[in-house]
Specification:
This protein has eleven helices and ten strands. By secondary structure, the protein is of the alpha+beta class. It folds into two domains: about 60 residues, Winged helix-like DNA-binding domain superfamily/Winged helix DNA-binding domain (Arc Repressor Mutant, subunit A, Orthogonal Bundle), CATH 1.10.10.10; about 180 residues, 2-Layer Sandwich (Beta-Lactamase). The strands form three sheets. A six-stranded antiparallel β-sheet has the order 6-5-4-9-8-7, sandwiched between helices. It is globular. The relative contact order is 0.13. This is IclR family transcriptional regulator.
Length: about 260
Amino acid sequence: MEGTIKSARRVLEIFEFFAQTHAAATVKELSQCLGYPQSSTSLLLKSLLAQGYLRYDPLTRTYYPTLRVMLLGSWVHDEIFGNGSLISLLEGLRREFGHSVLLGMRQGIYVRYIVTLCAETTGLPPYATGILRPVCRAAVGKILLAGLRNAEISLIARRANAQETSPACKVAVPELLADIETCRERGWAESRGRVVAGRNVIAMALPPVPGQMDLAIGLGGPEDAITCQRDQVVDRMRQIGLALQGRATIQAGMAPASLEARH
């Protein structure tokens, strides 16, 4: 096809394939259906997995889109059909408190911010969409860890410490587990300047979506300001969580089936 870059076209065709089939797929299935070499298909899927656009099931060896794909165009939906999506709820949170709002998911020893709605002026470094933060220190990461068993959290923390070059950034596992237990009891986490000095982020997990990776929202700004607004922020985040429960804005429907199960 003239006027297109092959790799870019293939990425879009992969997403269109999932939009049509509503099913998870293996490298071989995608390669055969789309007519791509299996080696280049595998590389494309691994790249999309690393960026958080796909999830991978090692048991079935299948790939399936994450909610990050849906969120790419949700703002366009709001402009055409009016507010009501997850993005519009997050934008309302940003306007209400005047601080940056984050949406993140865990990727190994990191949390990736897949949506960042930045406040205009904070005096702090802006958030970048797609950036990775240490899952054991970032508030969004800690609230996502709270849904795991302590044994799994300990393994993640030890892996993170093994790859961390700065001794000051390593986490003490017993202290992390105690912090996570506090997060479980109250239902939210905060960073208190442990990732960026002078910045605090309050984070809360979103209702789970079948077949998708867990997501959490965070609101971050100057530490003093966030501390003063903590109770109001937590109450508003709880309201957002309740609003999203059972709503079609982020509902994925049934868990993804393999192509074999559909035919």
